[in-house]
Amino acid sequence: MKVFRAGMALAGLMLAGCQQAPAQAAGGTIEAVNHTRWAINHFSVNGQSGIDIIGPHQGGGGGCCFRAPAQWQPGMTVKIDWETGIGDTDEFPGYGNREAYLAWERKIDSSRKKHSAIVLVPDYTGQKTCGITVHFLPCDKVKVTTSCHIYSDPQYPVKEPLRMPEPQVCPK
């Protein structure tokens, strides 16, 4: 009987702890759409990896997991960290000429740039949420959405085209 009571007390404490945790909306994967001519070598949302390399003008990701709070609050943000680099390997010289390969490798390495942005999460009140999709835009701009619609769906909230023109000089 003592074991039963102790077990019930422990279960009650565990249940109380779960009830005190903040309510979470439905979760899902961390995806991305790259609207730029640069490759996204890697990216993360609040420190959680988005997994895949995403080529220029492509989608990808698949990291696990992002859960939006059940209630959207004004001013909600996420931190996006990412690294860009050359997305085109047409100039790859092969491994036969070591000097040409090393020069190509230096060019690839010198093109890598680290970025970070704090991004507002759009209002999802009254909508189902499905993970998060990060949109990498020209001039190192970023948008996010928790929409369950896919990018090609007319109801998808981000309307920027996949191939966006990039200005010669980005506004400050």
UniProtKB/TrEMBL annotation:
InterPro entries reported for this sequence: DUF3304 (IPR021733)
Key words of the record: Signal
Signal peptide (from-to): 1-25
Protein's name in the database: DUF3304 domain-containing protein
Superkingdom as given in the UniProt entry: Bacteria
